Amino acid sequence: MLQKKMVLTLYHDLESFLKSEDFENDLKENLEISHPNYLKNLERRKKDMQKSDHAIVVAGETSAGKSTLINKILGKRIFKGDNLESTGTICKIRNSERIALSVEHMSGEKEVKDLTDTCDLETKEGIENLRKTLNDLTNMTDSKKSVQLKSVDIGFPVPFLKGDTILVDTPGIGGSGDVAQKVMEYLPNAVSFVFVINVGSAGGMQNDRLPKILKSLVILGIQNEMPCFDPKDVLFVTNKWDTITSCDSDSEEEDRQKEKTWKDVKCKIEKQWCAVQQKNIFKMSLKEVNTFQFSIDLSMR
After folding, report:
1. Of the four listed, 61, 218, 219, 296, which is most buried by Cβ atoms within 10 Å?
2. Integer Cα distance of 141 and 31 in angstroms
3. pLDDT 10s per residue in the chain (301 long)?
4. Of residues 164, 170, 153, the one with CA closest to residue 59
5. Which domains does the chain have, with CATH numbers?
6. Can you tell me whether residue 91 is helix, strand or coil?
7. Rounded to an integer, what distance in angstroms lies between the CA atom of residue 104 and that of residue 56?
8. Secondary structure (3-state) at 136
């Protein structure tokens, strides 16, 4: 927090100097040539520093396995998975000593529920109570209320989410509503971006869905709106490999089919996101993973 205040003070002092009469005109002209709109960009960076939350954003197609991935990361089955479009609301998970939900309505109205006494996450019953409460608020197949909510903020002990870092679960791309717009609200100040892909769906990449998000990311980068993570650090989790089976019982043929799909999906990812690193493309069947250790660099700027 002290470092953040120091950086904000530096931004303020620099901005004051650049606007002052002491800043020589010839230097100002050279700066405008080398860094057009420098004052506007400086203002963006200052506002960015003032934001309280820094998100690890998890996105992907409908039913790709985003909620399952987050459950594995948290080590608890907090979210209910569904084969249909399930998560209809942005869910933000943050580290908190107490277990509480903060619900934000589309109108901007907020309500807070303290669940510490009824949701002991060290017990199976407590986890089930929290999961049911979240499901009632966010699952579009079970509840119509989720459509009316902008976001649900979930607080409980998550030690790896240090400081103001939050984990964001987003609605599936390709479902109802403008999901891309919802996701984009969190990307400018994100510290990491994870995209989950269902390899059992059209070879793993829906051409009319994934490019929309990735194109928006590129535009943000061009506009200097996304300073928090490097494009080459974006993570792609390819999921549901257990659904790829051969039409016959030949295991060798099934292996060849999976290898072909793997090459195809990597090629499509590289085409849509040229900055991707091979080491950041993961291959797994999340439902078959018992304990999932997912290391993310949470260092602040």
Report:
1. 61
2. 55
3. 567 778 778 878 888 888 887 777 778 888 888 888 888 777 777 776 666 678 898 988 778 888 889 998 898 889 876 544 445 678 899 999 999 999 888 788 888 999 999 999 999 999 999 999 988 887 655 555 555 678 899 999 998 888 788 999 887 766 545 556 667 677 767 788 898 888 887 555 555 555 566 666 666 555 555 556 777 888 999 998 888 876 666 778 888 888 888 998 898 888 878 888 999 999 988 877 665 544 444 333 3
4. 170
5. 2-48 (no CATH), 52-288 (3.40.50.300)
6. strand
7. 20
8. helix
What's the CA gap between 74 and 160, in Å, rounded? 9
* Interstrand relation of 90-95 and 165-169 (parallel, antiparallel or unpaired): antiparallel
- Six-digit token pair at 168? 């964001």
Q: Following DSSP, what letter does each residue of 160-176 receive, concatenated?
A: TS-TTEEEEE-PPBTSS
Other beta carbons less than 10 A from residue 171's beta carbon: 26
Query: Is the separation of the CB atoms in 127 and 78 below 8 Å?
Result: yes
Sequence-ordered alpha helix ranges (H) in 20-95: 25-34, 38-50, 66-74
Judged on CB neighbours under 10 Å (0-12, 13-18, 19+), 82 is middle
State both tokens at 20. Answer: 């002052």
201: three-class secondary structure by DSSP: coil
| Closest by CA position to 134, among listed 194, 37, 67, 63 | 67
Single-letter amino acid code for the residue at 201: S
* β-strand pairing of 281-283 with 235-239: parallel
Q: What is the rounded distance in angstroms from the CA atom of residue 119 to the CA atom of residue 55?
A: 25
